[in-house]
Design goal:
By secondary structure, this protein is of the alpha+beta class. It has twelve helices and eight strands. The chain is 41% helix and 9% strand. It starts with a helix and ends in a 9-residue tail after the last helix.
Length: 343
């Protein structure tokens, strides 16, 4: 009996990283793909690297965009400094302790640098492969030494097939560009970046400039002004009305209260905090807007009925799906997910 228990405990603890990864990956991979697929396709047309490969590497290397390196350094591909790097630097333990990684001003810079990084002689043989040969590219990246993980190629292939990313390898770019024409698209790129950069950047017309902010888990938003509605914002910020409605889960007639968050991207299925304590008169939507988290995900994680009223003092899980008894799953408890956020 003791031997069985010891083996069970060893197996259980050994599976923790996998279970944790699965819980978070299921929630965030699709959001990551939705955010970055257009850029991956654009890079494919510029540099002839399959969009499926670029996205799969981004998902794997950045933990769906929420890894420390991605959040703090905008480095989505785990690219290290190397001798020719003249940009920002940060240090993390990887294959060795305190290794140097590149820091970018914006995640899109990371995508661009990733493409240019693969143009090195070391990866030259990859460009002899067809764009739709994602398996050959995945195996070639491992063979050429992009990563030390012996399962790296299989991990990329699994991600591509799980999310049907290979469909992007035949997709047309939103705008036809070539490396030679890249400079001509600078103004277009700058306009696109404005809507996705961190605080201190702006979007909108000259008379309606808005400060763009970013949640801790990477969702862009602005702060509503008096009278803002999906229709008025679509005019001012040159976005579609349906985007404001869908991203913020509101009707087309909704008028945002002054000071409310207005999301410019889809909210996610999880938050960067573990718990929320319900305050008086708070609704599920109120809480979803605080954390940039979909109401459906809040309801699902906490086993709430569609019209179930919240009670002051209730503790809602923002990351982990609760059991039918309202408790954290065992793997979340082991990971120390018991801290309450009081935002």
């Amino acid at each position: 009996m003791k031997t069985f228990f010891t083996r069970f405990l060893f197996f259980t603890l050994g599976c923790l990283p996998l279970l944790t990864a699965l819980a978070e990956n299921i929630d965030s991979a699709e959001e990551y793909i939705s955010t970055w697929k257009s850029e991956a396709v654009r890079q494919m047309h510029l540099y002839k690297i399959p969009a499926s490969i670029t996205l799969a590497q981004g998902i794997l290397e950045s933990g769906n965009g929420v890894s420390e390196l991605a959040n703090k350094s905008n480095n989505h591909f785990g690219i290290k400094c190397h001798a020719d790097w003249e940009g920002g630097r940060t240090y993390h333990d990887d294959d060795e302790k305190g290794e140097c990684f590149r820091v970018y001003d914006h995640p899109r810079d990371s995508y661009e640098d990733h493409s240019k990084f693969l143009l090195r002689t070391r990866y030259a043989e990859l460009f002899e492969l067809d764009l739709d040969d994602y398996k050959g590219w995945a195996k070639g990246l491992k063979k050429c030494g992009y990563a030390t993980n012996p399962k790296y190629a299989n991990l990329l292939i699994t991600l591509i097939e799980r999310h049907d990313l290979s469909r992007l390898d035949s997709e047309r770019a939103e705008e036809e560009v070539t490396v030679a024409d890249a400079d001509k698209t600078e103004d277009v790129q700058q306009r696109e970046e404005v809507a996705q950069t961190n605080p201190s950047t702006y979007i909108g017309t000259q008379s309606q400039t808005r400060d763009v902010r970013t949640t801790d888990h990477g969702v862009q938003f602005i702060i509503a002004r008096k009278g803002d509605s999906p229709k008025s914002l679509s005019h001012d910020l040159e976005m579609m009305t349906w985007q404001f409605r869908r991203y913020n889960e509101v009707s087309k007639e909704y008028v945002f209260a002054e000071g409310e968050k207005v999301y410019l991207q889809p909210k996610k299925n999880f938050a960067s905090y573990s718990w929320h304590v319900v305050r008086a008169n708070q609704t599920l939507w109120d809480i979803s807007q605080i954390y940039g988290m979909k109401t459906s995900a809040l309801r699902r994680k906490n086993n709430l009925e569609k019209d179930e009223a919240l009670v002051k003092g209730m503790r809602l899980s923002l990351k982990w799906p609760l059991t039918n008894e309202g408790k954290l799953p065992w793997y979340a408890q082991v990971m120390g997910a018991g801290k309450t956020n009081l935002e």
